[in-house]
Amino acid sequence: MKVLLLLGLVAVALCEQTRFVGERVLRVKPETYEHVSIIQELSRNVKVDFWRPDRADIVTVGMTVDIHVPAPQLAMVSTILHQSDMEVEVLIGDLQVAVEAQMNNKRFTKGHDYMKYNNWETINDWAISISSANPDLISRQVIGNTYEGRPMQLLTVGKKTGSVKPAVFMDCGFHAREWITPAFCQWFVQEAVSTYGSDAEMTNLLDKMDFFVLPVFNIDGYEYTWTRDRMWRKTRSKNSGSSCVGTDPNRNFDAGWCTVGASSNPCSDTYCGSRPESEIESKNLANFIRTNKSIIKSYLTVHSYSQLLLFPYSYKYGLAADHSELLSVAQGATSALRSLYGTKYQYGPGAVTIYPAAGGSDDWAYDLGIKYAYTFELRDTGRYGFLLPESEIKPTCEETMLAVKYIASYVVKNLY
Ligand SMILES: *[C@@H]1O[C@H](CO)[C@@H](O)[C@H](O)[C@H]1NC(C)=O
Ligand SMILES: [Zn+2]
């Protein structure tokens, strides 16, 4: 009887998970203004999910546009696109197949595995155990709870010297569906502690500075992608006066808030929230950085996908006061990254390199006075998009390590 009940509960849980059978991810390349307006029209009339860029109104001529089209809309959308003689490429023919194929590491491991995607419970346990196993290199604190009450675990990685050290702040998992990014933050912590003492650069970094690592920022959203909807992006907070849930945390910071490339509609995937830092996760992060801003020299926020290294500004076209230095550090970091597997990254200020978007955490940190503020957009460029297979975790993390170490080493060199 108990077994039957349990099976019943499992069945209910499985049914509640969104499936994507027959759904496609299409890539279109608008070549005229008419093409652009067709795409924008489409987004107004049909419920399509923009993967890149993240909203329709910033689509321009010559842009590469990746859209996830639900099955019921597929016939109509395909007809409209083909009639417009726009170039249409099928990136993912069946999204459900891709969702299942991303978990392609078949090795049996009980609990945490750096080469697999780990759910929040596993990451939380890992954060506790790796910090207690490395007491001289890692300390752990909770910087607040999420909307649904999960603890935002922050690991401070660096040799304990007894004095206050300059620091790099790095977060992953802003957008829930960007699973490669929490994987990178976990990788970074493990790589740091396991190469301290053998790798000269890492040893020097951990001796002279600390890394504040927040492995998952949007924990509620991340959990939701594991249990309900793999394609969820936003937080999970309720919005008053709307049945739509969640805010885009990377539109929720006080940097030109909601002026451009963001929506004031709670149903939008780029909803900026009811005010800056309306999301408790944004507030917790901003409070920590504000409190410690005198020691935080660099802010790194890790997203996916597109293979980009962006820096301020995104909320305006105007260049940052430190533009040429930020540009040259980005150039150095991306060439270090490329040296390992040849992965090409583009780099530049957000607004001119991709599109303007207000309320991002990198712009906010920069305007607060943290000069080396960068946004990573990790692999790939669209073959898998948010569904990067587990077999790419290792190469992605290895190459990204080189870029992060490059930036941190530059910061250290310019402090001493
Ligand atoms: C940074 O700020 C938080 C409070 O927001 C505090 O708990 C923490 O100890 C501060 N300093 C360091 C080095 O973590
Ligand atoms: Zn993102």
What does this structure look like?
The chain is α/β, with parallel strands linked by helices. It has two domains: 20-102, Alpha-Beta Plaits (2-Layer Sandwich); 120-413, Aminopeptidase. Helices cover 38% and strands 17% of the residues. It has 13 helices and twelve strands. The strands form two sheets. Strands 5-6-8-7-9-12-10-11 form an eight-stranded mixed sheet, sandwiched between helices. Strands 2-3-1-4 form a four-stranded antiparallel sheet. A hairpin with a 5-residue loop joins β5 (138-145) and β6. The chain starts with a helix and ends with a helix. Bound molecules: 2-acetamido-2-deoxy-beta-D-glucopyranose and zinc ion. Residues 174-175, 178, 250, 303 line the site of zinc ion (ZN).
- Sheet with most strands: 8 strands, mixed
Q: How many separate domains?
A: 2
CATH homologous superfamily classification of the largest domain:
Zn peptidases
Instruction: Indicate the proportion of strand residues.
Output: 15-25%
Shape: globular
Which sequence of SSEs, written as H and E, runs from N to C?
HEHEEHEHHEEEHHEHHEEHEHHEH
Return the CATH class of the largest domain.
Alpha Beta
| CA-CA gap between termini | 68 Å
Average pLDDT reading? 95
Which spans of ≥5 residues are poorly predicted at pLDDT below 50?
none
Show the helix and strand layout.
Layout lengths: L1 H15 L7 E6 L3 H13 L3 E4 L12 E5 L1 H13 L3 E6 L2 H7 L18 H14 L4 E8 L5 E7 L9 E6 L7 H16 L4 H9 L1 E5 L4 H9 L52 H12 L4 E9 L3 E4 L11 H19 L4 E4 H4 L7 H8 L3 E7 L14 H21 L3
Parallel strand pairs: 7-8, 7-9, 9-12, 10-11
Antiparallel strand pairs: 1-3, 1-4, 2-3, 5-6, 6-8, 10-12
Helix pairs in contact: 6-13, 7-13, 10-13
This protein binds 2-acetamido-2-deoxy-beta-D-glucopyranose and zinc ion.
The site of zinc ion has 5 residues, from loops.
